[in-house]
Amino acid sequence: MVDRRVFNDEADLLRARFDANRGLPPTKAISMIEQGEDELFTFSHPDPYVRSYMPGGSGFMRSSPLPKEVCFPDGDYPADFPNYTVNADMTICKPETGKAAVGSVLIDFTKKNME
Question: CA Rg, the chain, in Å?
Fold first, then answer.
């Protein structure tokens, strides 16, 4: 919403809906969550904003690094050559983040996400 007053009024109504349904039993709460997800999908923008470096963005894979095999075909890598792998979203693959750069990544440009 462009108008901040309308946005605040709608936010107050949404907060009131949450407060009215506080303390529901788990079975009813699950049903309300599903209805909320359906409502969110109904009111979502058909062409959501995407950061330029993410799949569907204008700069995605624009300056992707070359594989080290292309840069050094003889396999003689310099000592200071970075030894890391990048994910499909161009972040460094780290074990603690749970992201792995193994296998292929399907990029669905219609949904603007990675699967």
Answer: 22
Cα-based torsion angle of the residue sequence 66, 78, 94, 62 in order, rounded to the nearest 10 degrees: -20
96 band by pLDDT with thresholds 50, 70 and 90: low
Q: Where are the alpha helices (DSSP H) in 1-115?
A: 4-20, 26-43, 68-71
Would you state the structure tokens that stand for residue 7, as one six-digit string? 């946005």
Report yes or no on 57 lying in a domain: no
- pLDDT range class, residue 106, cuts 50, 70, 90: low
The whole-angstrom separation of Cα 94 and Cα 66 is: 19
33 domain-assigned: yes
- Is 65 inside a domain boundary? no
69, pLDDT greater than 60: yes
Domain count, the chain: 1
